[in-house]
Design a protein that fits this description.
The complex is a heterodimer.
Chain A lengths: L1 H13 L5 H9 L1 H29 L3 H27 L4
Chain B lengths: L7 H6 L25 H30 L3 H10 L3 H28 L6 H26 L1
Helix pairs in contact in B: 2-3, 2-4, 2-5, 4-5
Classes of the chains: A mainly alpha, B mainly alpha.
Chain lengths: 92, 145
């Protein structure tokens, strides 16, 4: 994840895409598209672990805890599908 | 970390009054200025805060990515949004959160494998993480503003 972030940072500083076609072409290049997908998969997994730890520390009532954790898991899963839809299921 | 030790000596050291003998001596008024937060504890709690902040940032990041890839008009709208001052402010705050989270996270991983877990080195790396995060945020601010 860190390598991907640093790579993107360097890319956007050195050669920023200044138009929609340039940006679209960059992110749909097969290597970048795959790397972006893997990045978001790792990011969402990390967010789940971190939020899970925090919620376990601060939310003690079992019912609320289960509810909030379920909501978090559902939200992160939905975000994952959203990313797949943006990167892979859009034509053009 | 705040300990729950009941010895008056350690309680005093943390700037807390002695443990109350009974419920009658409550409420206890803490003087926040006298509570000592070691630099490592500050790094630790801000690691947590920055992580939660970043997690809340994820849907907004993806929302912008979604819009920017909808087509030329969506791309233009995102570019215009990123030009708004408070959005730039939010980006700078998230940049601080990311930088601090990464630095403190690396520090944590290193101390897991016993690199720099002795107190002087741990204090030094905590300062590096705290200050480094702010430096990166300032750098982002000069680039964006």
């Amino acid at each position: 994840m860190l390598l991907f972030v640093v790579y993107c940072l360097v890319h956007f500083l050195a050669d920023p895409p200044h138009s929609y076609p340039a940006w679209h072409a960059w992110i749909t290049a097969s290597g970048i598209r795959m790397a972006t997908t893997l990045f978001f998969a790792a990011l969402l997994a990390h967010a789940w672990i971190g939020l899970h730890d925090v919620l376990m520390d601060y939310v003690h009532r079992t019912a609320i805890r289960v509810g909030v954790l379920a909501l978090t898991g559902f939200g992160l899963t939905a975000i994952g599908f959203w990313v797949v839809r943006i990167l892979w299921l859009r034509q053009g | 970390m705040l300990s729950t030790s009941t010895t008056s000596q350690s309680a005093e050291r943390q700037g807390l009054p002695p443990m109350p003998q009974s419920r009658k001596s409550r409420p206890v008024f803490l003087n926040p200025a006298r509570i000592q937060l070691p630099v490592g504890a500050l790094t630790s709690i801000t690691h947590r805060i920055s992580g939660v902040l970043l997690a809340f940032g994820i849907p907004f990041l993806i929302y912008l990515m979604d819009m920017s890839l909808e087509g030329p008009s969506g791309y233009g709208r995102v570019a215009a949004m990123l030009d708004v001052l408070w959005v730039k402010g939010a980006v700078i705050v998230l940049t601080w959160a990311l930088a601090h989270h990464v630095l403190a996270g690396i520090r944590h991983l290193l101390s897991d494998v016993d690199v720099g877990s002795q107190l002087p080195a741990a204090r030094r790396s905590a300062w590096i993480a705290n200050i480094g995060g702010v430096c990166v945020a300032l750098l982002a601010a000069t680039v964006l503003l």
